[in-house]
Amino acid sequence: MPWVILFLAGLLEVAWAVGLKYTEGFSRPVPSLLTALALVASVWLLAVSVRTLPIGTAYAVWTGIGAVGTVIVGILKFGESASVLRITCVGLIVIGLIGLKFAPGSR
User: Fold this and answer.
1) Alpha helix locations (H) across 1-107?
2) Is 51 helix (H, G, I), strand (E, B) or coil?
3) Among 13, 101, 100, which Cα is nearest to 63's?
4) In whole angstroms, what is the distance from residue 101 CA to residue 65 CA?
5) Which of 16, 52, 97, 99 fits as disulfide partner to 38, beta carbons 3.0 to 4.6 Å?
6) Local structure of 103: helix, strand or coil
7) What is the signed CA dihedral for 59, 62, 67, 68, rounded to 10 degrees?
8) Whether the predicted pLDDT of 70 surpasses 90
9) pLDDT mean over 70-76
10) Quick one: pLDDT at residue 104?
């Protein structure tokens, strides 16, 4: 269950990272509030997951999910570059996340 919680925390990290785009420097109240709520929920779920998971593993996976997810949203929604190098680098992050999940001591 802690891995599911961590995954949800990572998805919420994607939500607040993308939400920053819509806040326009926190000048728009509704997007700013939604972004802040996603941020708080994401960090709270991360904190819940580290009750069981090692902090180094959980934090790396949380930020990795956020980074990969945000890049994917950037490509699909905002037309950001999907160059071979960029996709390869994101793929390397994913491989690292999978490695952390199955590494000894990751529970």
Assistant:
1) 2-23, 29-49, 55-78, 84-102
2) coil
3) 13
4) 12
5) 16
6) coil
7) 130
8) yes
9) 97
10) 83
Do 107 and 61 form a contact (C-beta atoms < 8 A)?
A: no
Residue 83, CA distances (Å) to 66, 79, 80 in order: 20, 12, 9
Tokens (6 digits) for 106: 């990751």
Nearest to 2 by CA among 46, 64, 49: 49
Report helix, strand or coil for 39. helix
Q: For residue range 75-102, what is the model confidence (pLDDT) as tens digits? A: 999 999 999 999 999 999 999 999 988 8
* Tokens 């959980």 found at: 58
The predicted-structure confidence for 6-20, as pLDDT tens digits, reads as follows 999 999 999 999 999
pTM of the model: 0.89
CB 14 within 8 A of CB 65: yes
- What Rg, from alpha-carbon coordinates, does the chain have? 15
Separation of alpha carbons 12 and 43, rounded Å: 9
